[in-house]
Hints:
alpha+beta, 8-stranded antiparallel β-sheet, 5 helices, about 20% helix, disordered N terminus
Amino acid sequence: MTIQYQACHPLPLFSVPQISSSKIYATSSSVTRRKALSIFTFTTVFSGLAFSDSCSTNYSWSKTAISDFVELPNSGGVKALDLRVGDGETPANGDKVAIHYYGRLAAKQGWRFDSTYDHKDGTGEPIPFEFILGSGKVISGIDTALRSMKVGGIRRVIIPPSEGYQNTFQEPIPPNFFDRQRLFTTIFNPTRLANGEGSTLGTLIFDIELVSLRHQ
């Protein structure tokens, strides 16, 4: 049995620029306006992402743009940017992995719907999220991102709707009821899905730190 562990945690900072109404071209169709807003919001979200790291001095945490991301092979469109490359093992299907993450919803101007750093134990320490890689327990975009990471690494990923939440039972699930309700009513909004907005409603942005892995 092998355990790889990395104790260092990132301290993400997040801000989203204000969207002026002048950025959205007026049209006679409310559907077109909503699509334009979704696309504009998606592209501006990344100009507001920044990281600071309390325990790393050899990495320049800077703002990121969509052009910095690389699509992962055979991922269904998942795009990734390594913020810190780990020096531990790479997980395989069947390994028990522990991760910290920040989850954001692009359709809500990068609204952070969940973070493991908010899940604390009795001593106030953040509790990593653990699961078996390849078990189907979590959304496939997270599985895909982890398969090419190393323990200790931090990766920002853009997960398209097809690789994100397909139902309300897939993890990670926000523990807060109101966050959970807001997340799923946005992604699975039947009216907006019928209006053709499905390509943007479920797009997720995750910052993932691979904390440890255990070979089962």
